[in-house]
Amino acid sequence: MRWIGLILAVLAFAANFSPSETIHIAQFPPYPRLGKPVLLFLDDNRAPTTCNWFRGRDPSEESHIFRADFDSTEGVHRINQTGAAYTGREDLARGCSLIIRKVRPSDAGPYTVSMMGLGGSGAVTGVRNLQVYYSPFSFHPEGSRVVQFPPNPRVGQSVYLYLDDIQNPSECSWFRGKEQREEGRIFSAKFSGINRPYLIDLKGAAHRGREEVWRACSLVIRKVQASDSGPYMVSMWDEWDTRPITAERELRVSS
Fold it and tell me: Secretion signal: which residues (predicted)?
């Protein structure tokens, strides 16, 4: 029967992406605006040889966006197959990342990626719930993590550090180091809602003149230097939270 053959084909397709481990997928910017591009990327310094992106949590032929492979002669990844879920607005970025151009409300939802060549023998998978617009009732996960963009910054670039999945905090404080000490404070910022969404209201002893606040109370380090490497901590408040959300990240800068 035809339906039996179809089921077997789908099962065979999904079996190619059985995970041996899971990976963390982040989005940039943390608060994307409609009509602008948004990037989903591997929050890791490894580079896959192959990736398959899907809309939804389950890999299938119907949800397949594209497959990309690393071109060793050119030193970049290239799309070699598009799937049924490809709309023409999806493209490939560095590190086998997915970029969605002219993002729409309908783009919100889970995305799954399966990657090969990350050091193991099998595929590794990750799922990211893309949030296109802010909802004050969005779920705040336990154990929030700080995301770094780009994943492998070089001296002279701008680096963004921000809390994953916390889109509209009311205030934040950023520190150099693993503890919230005054000597390690970079700045404290609050939501203004006037001309700029966030304004720094206190610069600390660890502010070096190159740090700024950005969307979603992110920390931006301009013209990053090797000496900027090290741990960073953030304490962030949301109007719906009864206690601050804290997380840390080890920043590594390549020369």
Answer: 1-22
Q: Residue 55: its pLDDT value, please?
A: 96
pTM for the model = 0.68
Torsion of CA 201, 207, 208, 210, to 10 degrees: -50
H helices of 28-154, in order, are: none
Q: For residue 12, what is the enclosing H or E element?
A: helix 2-15
Residue 66 to residue 50: CA distance in whole angstroms: 11
CA dihedral over 41, 42, 45, 51, signed as positive or negative: negative
Tokens 């719930």 belong to 129
Question: Among residues 95, 94, 65, which one has the least CA distance to residue 80?
Answer: 65
CATH number assigned to the domain comprising residue 36: 2.60.40.10
Do you find a cis peptide bond into 136, omega within 30 degrees of 0? no
**DSSP state, 13?**
H
pLDDT in tens, 110-159: 999 999 888 766 788 899 988 876 544 344 444 578 889 888 888 999 99
Beta carbons of 92 and 79 less than 8 angstroms apart: yes
Number of domains the chain contains = 2
pLDDT-flagged residues of the chain (< 70)? 1-21, 120-121, 133-143, 165, 167, 193-196, 239-242
Which amino acid appears at position 253 of this protein?
A: V
Q: What range does the domain containing 62 cover?
A: 25-130
Regarding whether 151 and 244 lie in a shared domain, the answer is yes
